[in-house]
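Before going further, learn to read the protein records used in this course. A complete example follows; check for yourself that the lines match position by position.
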Amino acid sequence: MLLQHAAGELAGLLLDLIVRLDLNNEKFLLVKSGGMVGHSTYFDKLLDERLRMAAPNAVFGSLVMTAAQAAARLALKLLLAPQIEEA
């Protein structure tokens, strides 16, 4: 019951976001990420069902890299970039 409620709440948040961004009739990429994903087959299936009901035009995808990896790459890029001197 707790997982069903959580999946419903997340789908509700998605639906609110779709309305706010005026994506009702648009195709858009939807990527699930975070600590709740990939640890429970039951919850993942339930969440997918609820998200698909809330966002029938969404195209589900996967992250190319984690947020931590992206942050580390950006930090390294900024660290290795030539410093711009202020005049």
Notes: The beta strands are 28-31, 58-61. The helical segments are 2-20, 41-54, 67-80. The mean pLDDT is 91.
